[in-house]
Write a structure and sequence with these properties.
The complex is a heterotrimer of chains A (348), B (353) and C (166). In chain A, the strands form 2 sheets. In chain A, strands 1, 2, 3, 4, 5 and 9 form a 6-stranded mixed β-sheet that branches. In chain A, strands 6-7-8 form a 3-stranded antiparallel β-sheet. Chain A has helices spanning 10-14, 16-40, 109-120, 142-148, 211-214, 216-222, 226-238, 245-249, 275-288, 298-302, 309-324; strands at residues 46-52, 59-64, 73-74, 103-107, 129-133, 154-160, 163-168, 171-176, 198-199. Chain A has 348 residues and is an alpha/beta fold. The longest helix of chain B is centred in the last third of the chain and has 19 residues, at 299-317. Chain C is of the alpha/beta class. Chain C has one domain: Rossmann fold, CATH 3.40.50. Chain C contains 5 helices and 4 strands. Chain C has helices spanning 12-15, 33-42, 64-72, 93-107, 128-145; strands at 24-29, 51-56, 77-82, 118-122. Chain C has a 4-stranded parallel β-sheet with strand order 2-1-3-4, sandwiched between helices. The chains are: A alpha/beta (348), B alpha/beta (353), C alpha/beta (166). Chains in contact: A-B, A-C, B-C. Chains A and C meet through helix 6, helix 7, helix 9 and helix 11 of A and helix 3 and helix 4 of C.
């Protein structure tokens, strides 16, 4: 694949026409977002969206109460965070009285599924949120970018057509977007928000329509013999530093301060940093999300040690789809399969 | 005259192997087969490729303050006549082996001086830490690969700062010039490799010269302690700066100067161990009191404490020393891109906004 | 929780008490399977001695954590048993448990744990003979598998081939 740091060249000019169009679409989406938020803000308690951070490759969540800050809002492939967790974790909502105006939130396709799951489990009601849906073509994994090019001081990062263009202290890097998308995006079936009040930009085409594409990485693991799988997970999970970023970033990890890894009574895990402790933590993290995980990939994105933790949950998602025909976060009225039962099923 | 040697890149492994017969080695390396994987400090075994080209993902502090260490072991002995726990034996024997950290960066090594103030300068002296400190030498790499997230010179360090180091490693064309900065380090270099030729020696001198002049980062921490105190009660400020915080422990666990720990007794049957392990001020349980009261109930108070600790409490207590070495790891690893430079930088801005 | 101590720290003599040192943990519901095991005992049916029983109020109480922790810390087999479906003392507890344990059963091998080390079954309080059959079969199965290799305490082994992900 042609990637890496190609300087702006003739080849670049040849595709610039399409790029202009694509860039225009992104710019228009951003402007459309600003306009819609500006109109809606008086009826909102707060608007949760993405803003540029000190690193142009990454965005940071922003909480807007004041029309002055709306211009900071951004959208596009660099907006990787799933913001829905802020709706149910303190103090975002704690500071908002229950009878207050709704909260506005930007969601991508996968984020919208988390929102649906939160509504299903009654962590919030539909009328508490005003959903600004943003169709998504995949989000950039900055670690993948750093593995391709050594970055010293990125001044700007823009997406033009299928390329991510970085200005790194004078050098222009042009990287195929496809090469640096997050792992979870490559098997995405729901790039368009499944629930929304307004939709911004044009709808996106799903990258996958079948289980085999979506769960390709799960299959890659399952091809290995049992011992290899155990060895793989042991060596991957050994890197875990028990920072619990995966847990805290997960919008559906709702136990929070009562998490089994930290409770002292009963104490399920010791303070040791051995493989069994880490293995058990990730095992249980995944089990608690069985039938609930929407595959937004936050746990994996936030891991500083680059452990493919979403993959563990992907397997359980696959089990749920194959065994019970259930994909999480699609229907606000559905009940997650492990929170209900069917007396008639004998051979599940 | 200082002892200097030149290690050619292709001889690095064999030199390290030779060195490891004299002293245990800890080197920065990838934590996986894949070279681009996260890195950390690992014990050297022949064949381990050092990762000198980038900053390690996890910090050096574990060389002196492991993530988990056993403080003591205890065992209850059943007395046939008396109660089942009538006597207990305690064993706090430990063995600290002399270790050389080869190839840490100046920020990481300098960060340990902050830990020194806490663990070894009294009034409470921590024997576990002090023992390790005494037995550990540092060969520090003059840093040539700072990126946009580094800010060591703004917090009192620098890419060639050798505070706390015993050896200096200068990457030159075709290898490394290693120079002993202390007598005990000189003996380590004996018979290890030849002295550098004059061209390489001159190049090393130039690189150090250049690195000493280089400014990394623009954060101005002057007046931060006072500014922090003024901002302390401004909930709006903290909401605005860090409401996106997830409350995870990444920043504290990758921080080379964060030293907070917890002590737990892990008991199985009649035997047990008293462990000291890293804790994080970002966790709810860190400040949870036995009564159930938590003085820092939300992430706002917790993050505020982290900033205050590094840029206000430590400097006020230890004559201006900062609790931050400018390595930029917390910025790099933060899942929601919180930039501590912004939080600290804005402390002093007009408070009326 | 004597039997759940990590194998690595357990001296050999502790495990020598049972045949070949095999340890099986049984989680039995209070109303049916615990009674079933009791019936088997009262009837003096011969049973393997590898099983250590933990009584739970209902299989609905069965947290996958119990099973995961047991297997990760080196127990050789886990057997869960409760009331037959539609016979739950609490009406529906075992229905929830069934889905949960089916999911777990399918999930274990993905993490590299042999799913044959885990089994769940239904035994009522009157089925002493059925209990004897279940526990004998499961015990034999675990003996065939041998001791649980468990997890390494520390890896430090970087030669493990990584599996190519997207």
């Amino acid at each position: 694949m042609a990637v890496g740091w190609v300087k702006r060249s003739a080849a670049h000019h040849a595709v610039s026409e399409i790029e202009r169009v694509e860039k225009a679409v992104l710019e228009t989406s951003r402007m459309q977002l600003h306009k819609l938020v500006e109109e809606a803000l008086p009826e909102l308690e707060m608007m949760i969206g993405w803003a540029e951070s000190s690193d142009p490759l990454q965005t940071t969540p922003i909480f807007i109460r004041d029309a002055k800050s709306i211009s900071k809002l951004t959208c596009g492939p660099l907006c990787s965070q799933n913001l829905t967790g802020y709706l149910v974790k303190p103090p975002a909502l704690d500071s908002v009285p229950k009878d207050a105006k709704p909260i506005g939130i930007c969601v991508k396709g996968c984020d919208s599924r988390s929102l649906v799951a939160l509504i299903q489990e009654k962590f919030l009601t539909r009328d508490r949120v005003r959903i600004f849906g943003i169709p998504c073509r995949g989000t950039v994994d900055w670690r993948k970018v750093e593995k391709r090019v050594q970055l010293l001081n990125v001044k700007s990062a823009t997406v033009e057509d299928d390329w991510l263009i970085l200005d790194d202290s004078g050098t222009t890097h042009k990287i195929a977007l496809e090469e640096v998308l997050s792992r979870k995006c490559l098997g995405c079936r729901y790039p368009n928000p499944v629930i929304h009040d307004v939709l911004i930009g044009q709808s996106a085409t799903p990258r996958s329509t079948d289980l085999a594409t979506t769960y390709r990485d799960v299959d890659a693991i399952e091809k290995e013999p049992l011992e290899q799988r155990l060895a793989f997970w042991q060596s991957e999970l050994d890197r875990c530093i028990r920072c619990y970023a995966c847990r805290n970033a997960c919008p559906l990890c709702v136990c929070q301060d009562k998490c089994i890894v930290e409770t002292r009574e009963p104490r399920w895990l010791t303070q040791r940093a051995g493989i069994p402790e880490k293995f058990l933590f990730h095992f249980i993290h995944a089990m608690h999300l069985a039938g609930r995980c929407t595959g937004c990939g936050e746990c994996e994105r936030v891991c500083p040690m680059e452990i493919p933790v979403t993959l563990i949950k992907e397997k359980l998602n696959k089990i749920m789809e194959e065994m019970l025909g259930y994909a999480a976060g699609l229907d606000p009225d559905a009940v997650p399969p492990l929170l209900t039962f069917n007396p008639g099923e004998t051979e599940i | 005259m200082a002892v200097k040697i030149f290690i050619a890149t292709d001889r690095l492994d064999s030199v390290l192997e030779k060195l490891s017969t004299k002293i245990d080695l800890l080197i920065p390396a990838s934590l996986k087969d894949d070279k681009s994987a996260p890195t950390g400090f690992v014990p050297f075994v022949p064949g381990t490729a050092p990762a000198f080209d980038r900053q390690t993902t996890t910090p050096l502090k574990k060389a002196l303050l492991p993530q988990v260490e056993t403080l003591l072991r205890f065992e209850y002995h059943k007395d046939p006549q008396g109660s089942p726990k009538s006597s207990v034996t305690v064993d706090d024997q430990r063995q600290v082996r002399p270790t050389l950290v080869f190839g840490a960066r100046p920020c990481d090594v300098k960060a340990l001086t902050t830990l020194d103030r806490v663990f070894s300068n009294g009034p409470y002296v921590d024997p576990y830490y002090v023992e390790r400190r005494k037995n550990t030498l540092f060969a520090t790499l003059v840093c040539r690969q700072n990126d946009a997230k580094c800010f060591c010179t703004s917090v009192g360090g620098g890419p060639a700062d050798m505070e706390g180091s015993h050896l200096r490693i200068v990457p030159v064309d075709g290898g490394y010039v290693v120079e002993a900065l202390s007598p005990e380090a000189q003996t380590l270099l004996e018979n290890l490799a030849d002295a550098p030729d004059s061209a390489r020696d001159a190049q090393a001198g130039q690189i150090v010269e250049e690195a000493l002049k280089r400014r990394v980062g623009e954060l101005d921490t002057k007046g931060s302690p006072e500014a922090f105190r003024k901002r302390f009660d401004q909930t709006d400020y903290w909401f605005q700066m860090i409401n996106q915080c997830l409350g995870c422990g990444v920043c504290t666990y990758v921080c080379p100067t964060c030293y907070c720990f917890t002590i737990t007794d892990e008991v199985e049957n009649l035997k047990g161990e008293r462990l000291r392990s890293w804790d994080s001020c970002m966790f709810y349980h860190y400040t949870l009191e036995a009564s159930g009261h938590n003085p820092r109930p939300t992430k706002l108070e917790r993050y505020r404490n982290r900033v205050g600790h590094k840029f206000s409490y430590i400097p006020e207590r230890y004559e201006g020393l900062l609790g931050c070495c400018g390595c930029g790891r917390c910025i790099r690893s933060c899942p929601v891109s919180i930039d501590i430079r912004q939080v600290v930088g804005h402390l002093k801005e007009n408070t009326s906004e | 929780m004597k039997d759940l101590s990590p194998r690595s720290s357990a001296p050999a003599d502790e495990t020598a008490a049972t045949t070949q040192g095999i340890k099986i943990v049984g989680f039995l519901c209070n109303w049916c399977s615990y009674g079933g095991a009791d019936t088997a005992g009262v009837c003096r049916f011969k049973q393997p001695t590898d099983l250590r029983v933990v009584r739970i109020p209902c299989t609905g109480r069965m947290d996958p954590l119990f099973i995961a922790k047991s297997l990760i810390y080196g127990v050789d087999g886990v057997l869960v048993s409760g009331c037959h479906p539609r016979d739950c003392h609490y009406a529906v507890g075992n229905f929830y448990a069934r889905r949960r344990m089916e999911a777990l059963k399918a999930f274990l091998p993905f993490m590299g744990i042999d799913t044959q080390r885990f089994r769940y079954t239904w035994v009522s309080a009157s089925e002493g003979q059925q209990w004897q059959k279940v526990v004998t079969e499961f015990s034999e199965q675990i003996h065939r598998l041998g001791p649980n290799p468990g997890l390494k305490q520390r890896s430090g082994d970087h030669s493990i081939p990584s599996i190519a992900l997207r």
